[in-house]
Write a structure and sequence with these properties.
By secondary structure, the protein is an alpha/beta fold. The protein is built from 9 helices and 9 strands. Helix 4 runs parallel beside helix 5. The chain is globular and about 45 Å long.
Length: about 280
C-alpha cells in the first residue's frame, strides 16, 4: 500500500483549481484539501475557519434542492467611468467570464430547516465582496420579498466594504439598504445577520450590524477601518484581538459567536424564537 492510500478521501477528485494540500493560516499545519472540504473548510487541527465560496455557503445553510436564485440578471454599470490600471467595466467583464456569480452578492429564496428564508450570501472572490449599486439593489429586493412573503431574511456578509469604483453611488447603498430594513422591522419580520471574515467598511456600517440577531463566525474580522489604519491614525497600540469576533462579543457589539457546524441549527432556533414556534434541540 502506498503511503497516500492511508489518508481518507484519497481517490476523490478535487476541483481543478484546488491544490491537494493547504497550509492553515493559524497553526501552519498542512491539511489534505479533501479533509478540509469535508470539515466545512474548518481546520481539523486548530478550528481556524477558512473562507467559503458563496456556493458552499448556500449549501451549508439551505436544505438541498430548495434554493432559487433571484435577480441574477443584474450587472454593474460604470456610472463614473472609473479607471485605474484597468477600466472598471473591463474588470467586471473579465470576472463575468470566469465566475458563476454576476456580482459580489447572490440572493434567493430557500428552506432553512423548517423556515422559509430570503438568503443573501456575499462572494468575496468578486472584487473583494465590495458593495456597489447592484449589491444594494439585490439586497433591497430581497428585503422587499421577505416583507411581502413574511419570510425571514438572512444575510451572510463577507466584504471589504463599499466599492470605490462606483464612488458616491456605492455609499448611497448604505442608506438604501438601512431604510429598507426599517420597513422590514416595522412589519415584524425577523432578520439574522451573519458576519464572516472579513466584514468591513460600508457593509459593517449599514445592514450587517442591523440584524435582530447578529452572529459571527470564530475569528472573523469585523470593523470599519482596518486595525493597521487605526493604529497609524491614533498612534496607539490596539488591544490583542481587536476587531475579532470574540473581542466584539465581549464588548457587546454582536450577540453570539457560532461555530460553522452549528450555524444552520442556531439560525433555525433563533427564527423559531422570533416566530414563537418549537425549537429544535441544539447538538452538544
Amino acid at each position: 500500500m502506498a503511503w497516500f492510500d492511508k489518508f481518507p478521501g484519497v481517490g476523490r477528485k478535487l476541483p481543478k483549481t484546488k491544490e491537494a494540500w493547504v497550509e492553515c493560516r493559524s497553526c501552519k499545519e498542512q491539511i489534505y484539501q479533501i479533509d478540509l472540504i469535508d470539515n466545512l473548510h474548518v481546520c481539523p487541527k486548530c478550528d481556524y475557519h477558512f473562507r467559503m465560496t458563496y456556493a458552499d455557503r448556500i449549501q451549508l445553510l439551505v436544505n438541498p434542492g430548495t434554493f432559487e436564485e433571484k435577480d441574477a440578471n443584474l450587472i454593474s454599470g460604470d456610472p463614473i467611468r472609473f479607471k485605474d490600471k484597468k477600466r472598471y467595466k473591463d474588470r467586471v467583464k473579465s470576472l463575468l467570464k470566469v465566475r458563476n456569480s454576476t456580482d459580489s452578492v447572490v440572493c434567493g429564496a430557500g428552506q432553512l430547516e423548517d423556515h422559509q428564508v430570503e438568503l443573501c450570501v456575499f462572494d468575496f472572490e468578486f472584487l473583494g465582496g465590495s458593495m456597489g449599486s447592484v449589491v444594494g439593489e439585490k439586497i433591497t429586493r430581497a428585503i422587499e420579498r421577505a416583507r411581502a412573503d413574511k419570510s425571514a431574511l438572512v444575510i451572510v456578509s463577507c466584504s471589504g466594504g463599499a466599492r470605490m469604483q462606483e464612488g458616491i453611488f456605492s455609499l448611497m447603498q448604505m442608506a438604501k439598504t438601512s431604510s429598507a430594513l426599517k420597513t422590514l422591522a416595522d412589519e415584524g419580520v425577523p432578520y439574522i445577520s451573519v458576519l464572516t471574515d472579513p466584514t468591513m467598511g460600508g457593509v459593517s456600517a449599514s445592514f450587517a450590524m442591523l440584524g435582530d440577531a447578529i452572529l459571527a463566525e470564530p475569528g472573523a474580522l469585523v470593523g470599519f477601518a482596518g486595525p493597521r489604519v487605526i493604529e497609524q491614525t491614533i498612534k496607539q497600540k490596539l488591544p490583542e484581538g481587536f476587531q475579532r469576533a470574540e473581542f466584539l462579543l465581549d464588548h457587546g457589539l454582536i450577540d453570539q459567536v457560532v461555530h460553522r457546524k452549528n450555524l444552520k441549527r442556531r439560525i433555525s432556533n433563533l427564527l423559531s424564537l422570533f416566530k414563537n414556534t418549537p425549537i429544535v434541540a441544539q447538538p452538544s
